[in-house]
Design brief:
Layout (H helix, E strand, L loop, with lengths): L4 H16 L1 E5 L5 E3 L8 E5 L4 H13 L21 H24 L18 H18 L3 H23 L5 H14 L17
Parallel strand pairs: 1-3
Antiparallel strand pairs: 2-3
Length: about 210
């Protein structure tokens, strides 16, 4: 299955630009979240190098950040760069568990393999397997207790688009997939249905 970053940008913008004034933007070396300002009408989730996985990861942070955090550059957090010692790496992993758990659910929704990111090549050796277990457990908790609404809307969008893409590719046509998927995502944002539990409290600043 093809995972074209332009499709993901179109899907995200189609669902969230109207209601959350937020767009997904291809960036350079470093990802960053930039709130709207006098020169930019929309908030921007800037992901690195045009990578699909980077985009999903940055979206996951946005889905967890509460309203006040989304008014601040990089949600008001300071990123600890590569080269972390054991204590700082433990702190890094603790705040990364929930976003990477959502990222794994996004990857699952678009039939894309997922691998955790420990992001510390020049620092202390990391137990990737142990971190993977924690991320998987948090993903299971999201499924059990509820998924933040924006994340749920994106999952619906991805599931519809990539299911349709598989059928369309098989039959040689790609028309209509984006539009139908965007409608599904917008419908989820507006819906009060509870067929998949939604943890409203997850839409705040916590892991």
């Amino acid at each position: 299955m093809t995972h074209d970053i332009e499709d993901l940008i179109a899907l995200f913008d189609g669902v969230f630009a109207p209601s959350y004034r937020t767009r997904l933007v291809r960036g350079g070396d470093e990802p960053i979240y930039l709130p709207a300002d006098a020169e930019h009408e929309f908030h921007r989730i800037v992901f690195a190098h045009g990578f699909f996985a980077s985009a999903l990861h940055e979206i996951s942070h946005w889905c967890i950040a509460g309203e006040s955090r989304r008014q601040q550059e990089d949600y008001g957090y300071w990123y600890e760069p590569d080269g972390r010692d054991a204590g700082r790496q433990a702190d890094f992993e603790r705040v990364e568990i929930a976003p990477q758990a959502l990222e794994s659910l996004f990857s699952e929704a678009c039939s894309k393999p997922f691998e955790v990111s420990v992001d510390n090549l020049e620092g202390v050796e990391v137990d990737r397997r142990a971190f993977s277990v924690k991320v998987a457990a948090r993903a299971a908790r999201f499924r059990r207790e509820g998924i933040p609404l924006r994340a749920w809307a994106l999952i619906d969008t991805l599931e519809v688009f990539y299911t349709l893409e598989g059928c369309m590719t098989e039959h040689g046509t790609t028309e209509g997939g984006l539009e139908e998927a965007i409608v599904a995502g917008r419908r989820r944002l507006e819906s009060s249905e509870t067929t998949r539990p939604v943890e409203r409290a997850a839409d705040v600043d916590r892991a």
